[in-house]
Design a protein that fits this description.
10 helices; alpha/beta; 301 residues; single chain
Length: 301
C-alpha cells in the first residue's frame, strides 16, 4: 500500500513537468528547468525519487541519456560544469551536447574522425549558446599511453563533473589509464552482447580495429561486469543504464550515495534489445580474442 501511495505522490509532483514532454523539440531549457525544480523538491522534502528508467529523454542523445544526465546532476548538483567526451562523434547522438548548449557547460571533445571534429567545431562556433566560448574539439587517436597527456595539454586536471567514453575500441583500457582527472560521473558504452555476468574486454592494442555488423560494433569495448570491476578499483559504483541497455552510468562513491544507490549489473539487461543482441551476435564474437577481467576485490578478501 505504501508503495502505491508513494508512486501516486511522485506522479502528482512530477505531472506538470512530465506533461510538457511530448516530443524531442519540447524538452527545451525551460522544461528542463521545471523538471530540475521538481527533482530538487522531491529531494529536499524526502519524497520518492524516480528511477533512471522514468527520467530519460532525448534532445541530442541517441536514446534517453540526456534526461538521465539531467536528473543525475539535478539531484547531485553541478560542480565544475566541465566535461570530457572521448569518442564524441557528431552532434546527432551526442551525450554531451545538451549540457553544453542548454546548461552552460564547457568541455573537451575528442574524436579520431577529422570530419566529425570539423562538424563539431562548426556547430558549436555557430550555435548562439556556445559561440562566445565553444567547447574545445580536437582530432586524436587515443591510447593508454597518450590519453593523460592529451587531457593535461588542454588543461584538464583534477575534478570534473562528467567523463564520457565511447570510442568503439579500447574503452576499458582508456578508462583504466586515466589518472589526471577525477570525474564525478562516468558515462560509457559497454558490450551488452555478453550479458551481466561475463567480465571481459578486448585486448589492448594502440591501433585496435573494431569489428562491425551493420551499425553495431560487435567486437569492441568491454562487458558491463568488466567495467563494474574496474569502477570498484577506481572508486565508482554502477547506478544504472539507458533505455536499451548499452550505456552505463557510474558515480564516484562520494557523490549522491543516498539519492543514487548502487544497482546490480543484471538490472541493465531488462530491455529486449539486450537479449536480441546476445542471440544475434554472441556466437560471432565469443571465439575472438577477449581478455578476462578478474574480480580483484574478491581476491583481496
Amino acid at each position: 500500500m505504501l508503495g502505491r501511495v508513494a508512486r501516486q505522490a511522485r506522479t502528482r509532483l512530477l505531472a506538470p513537468a512530465l506533461s510538457a514532454i511530448g516530443s524531442m523539440k519540447e524538452v527545451g531549457p525551460e522544461v528542463q528547468l521545471l523538471l530540475r525544480l521538481h527533482y530538487k523538491h522531491l529531494l529536499y522534502t524526502n519524497g520518492p525519487l524516480p528511477t533512471l528508467s522514468e527520467v530519460g529523454f532525448s534532445v541530442y542523445s541517441e536514446s534517453d541519456e540526456d534526461g538521465i544526465l539531467h536528473y543525475i546532476f539535478s539531484v547531485t548538483g553541478e560542480g565544475t560544469k566541465n566535461l570530457i567526451d572521448l569518442g564524441a562523434g557528431g552532434i546527432e547522438g551526442s551525450n554531451t551536447a545538451n549540457l553544453l548548449i542548454n546548461h552552460g557547460w564547457s568541455g573537451l571533445l575528442v574524436d579520431a574522425d577529422s570530419e566529425k571534429v570539423r562538424s563539431l567545431q562548426a556547430f558549436y562556433t555557430g550555435a548562439r549558446a556556445t559561440r562566445i566560448f565553444p567547447p574545445t574539439c580536437i582530432c586524436a587517436q587515443l591510447t593508454a599511453e597518450n590519453v593523460n597527456a592529451i587531457l593535461l595539454d588542454h588543461r584538464y586536471a583534477g575534478e570534473i563533473d562528467l567523463l564520457c567514453i565511447d570510442i568503439d575500441g579500447i574503452d576499458y583500457w582508456i578508462w583504466k589509464a586515466i589518472e589526471c582527472v577525477r570525474p564525478r560521473v562516468v558515462l560509457l558504452e559497454y558490450q551488452c552482447i555478453w550479458g551481466a555476468d561475463v567480465s571481459v574486454t578486448v585486448p589492448y592494442a594502440p591501433n585496435f580495429h573494431p569489428l562491425y555488423e551493420g551499425q553495431f560494433g560487435i567486437y569492441s569495448g568491454a562487458s558491463l561486469a568488466a567495467f563494474v570491476r574496474l569502477g570498484v578499483l577506481k572508486g565508482y559504483r554502477l547506478v544504472g543504464c539507458q533505455r536499451y541497455g548499452y550505456n552505463a552510468f557510474f558515480l564516484r562513491n562520494d557523490v549522491g550515495r543516498d539519492s543514487l544507490p548502487q544497482v546490480h549489473p543484471g538490472e541493465c539487461f531488462t530491455h529486449p534489445f539486450t537479449r536480441w543482441a546476445r542471440d544475434t551476435f554472441l556466437e560471432k564474437i565469443q571465439r575472438l580474442q577477449w581478455v578476462e577481467v578478474p574480480d580483484v576485490s574478491a581476491q583481496d578478501d
